[in-house]
Amino acid sequence: xxxxxxxxxxxxxxxxxxxxxxxxxxxxxxxxxxxxxxxxxxxxxxxxxxxxxxxxxxxxxxxxxxxxxxxxxxxxxxxxxxxxxxxxxxxxxxxxxxxxxxxxxxxxxxxxxxxxxxxxxxxxxxxxxxxxxxxxxxxxxxxxxxxxxxxxxxxxxxxxxxxxxxxxxxxxxxxxxxxxxxxxxxxxxxxxxxxxxxxxxxxxxxxxxxxxxxxxxxxxxxxxxxxxxxxxxxxxxxxxxxxxxxxxxxxxxxxxxxxxxxxxxxxxxxxxxxxxxxxxxxxxxxxxxxxxxxxxxxxxxxxxxxxxxxxxxxxxxxxxxxxxxxxxxxxxxxxxxxxxxxxxxxxxxxxxxxxxxxxxxxxxxxxxxxxxxxxxxxxxxxxxxxxxxxxxxxxxxxxxxxxxxxxxxxxxxxxxxxxxxxxxxxxxxxxxxxxxxxxxxxxxxxxxxxxxxxxxxxxxxxxxxxxxxxxxxxxxxxxxxxxxxxxxxxxxxxxxxxxxxxxxxxxxxxxxxxxxxxxxxxxxxxxxxxxxxxxxxxxx
Amino acid sequence: xxxxxxxxxxxxxxxxxxxxxxxxxxxxxxxxxxxxxxxxxxxxxxxxxxxxxxxxxxxxxxxxxxxxxxxxxxxxxxxxxxxxx
Lengths: 540, 85
Fold this sequence. Notes:
heterodimer; A: 540 residues; alpha/beta; Glucose Oxidase, domain 1; Enzyme I, Chain A, domain 2; TIM Barrel; eight-stranded parallel barrel; 20 helices; B: 85 residues; alpha+beta; Histidine-containing Protein, Chain: A; four-stranded antiparallel β-sheet; 3 helices; globular
């Protein structure tokens, strides 16, 4: 047994097989003599891939839904496609190994799709990459596709980028261990969202030598045990049970209204960054979605998602929430969330650079497409809109102008949408908090993003481990800005919420409510605990 | 040999899902079945072929079937096209 220490960022205990997460580059190219044997090896790999895909199809169908499962059926057709199979075989017949033949064929097909002058089809190019990666993994005897056998994995990585985390199969993840990352990085947020333990700052863990080894995570102490012994396992099992019992107790707060002792109703909403999170939202009985991080649609995509594609996602979200409010935050990329096809040059200071609403106002065609999609979805449920990173009244006015253009277009086209859709803004810069009195007259609600607000108020990069100590989210300066925003919002008669991580801090809940905060939006896992807390306090 | 023309009425064109449905349908028949769009003809039993048609809203595709079960194949594909596209 080896024990490694890091910083636990989410409690709980997990057991699983370590999966070292790395993006694979090219494969080794060899010349082979036994050509028919190599062709057979490829055929066997194809059969195996088909079995894996069938397993994934069934699993996804039963756990998520038929629509989501269909992609695996398409992948199966691609894997067995005659053109594809023949192309690989022809390459093998020229005397190269199956891995290289699959890799090269995959690249050819990828480029062929990419060059199709069709945004939708060029996006499917990524599926081609997926199927060839699967075949290469099987051929080179690498660990089987995650979750194909219902195994649980502990993901080990240097640090996970948002686009990587989006691609993970969440059902099969037991925990995260990363070398880098901070308490506010995406790995951490994702772990909280998924309610699984995570440890950051574990030196050397992204090394291939750990791949496939069994391990246990103790999230509360921040310890990773590689090949744990009996005693450790027994101790962790007891700990896990205790942790789960506590969660169990919270179940009785489901279905209850969130009101303070003296009768003030608090809107208790959840933050989501993926469609599957909605199941967590419903399971934990959140009263709405306070932060729908729409950028996941862009991060998951290889090119700009079309209006139709976005519309389907938003529509599904509002329908699933059945009349509960769904606050869709418009695109927030740049800074730590980069998307290749946006082609944004490297910046010295991305957090202070070209991001979020700045990109949207600079590229109104992208922005309007998203606004049209959200507006159209508003006809199917209770959708609201929220702009990120607003610093000035002018920015808000410009964003609203584009929104009005989108509304006008839809009206002329006779497309239905909710005319009274609420428009709010994130308060996540000190500038916005300081002029919140002027901003309040221009929108329907404020939602305070505490992570960015802390980063910009304290002048501390939230991705930088070295200054993590100074990232004090509970600093007096940050709290004063929150209080000020609440007061200014209420003067203009609009509601004010908090959608950052700080909203889940129960030591501050009483303060927030006494300042008049009307809404708290947190990771789904915190909902019940927060409700329990609110029921016990008085607003005055 | 039998053939017919069909105009795509789905706003998104032949995207991945309906392409999959078409391939599945065509694969049920022994006849050789092809689809043509803008002069490009592909085997309808392969997903890469059907997707590479990149047939969009308003475009006309020509479906051809040749073999002992060509009549049934044509009828079934017509039905599936109407239902999905």
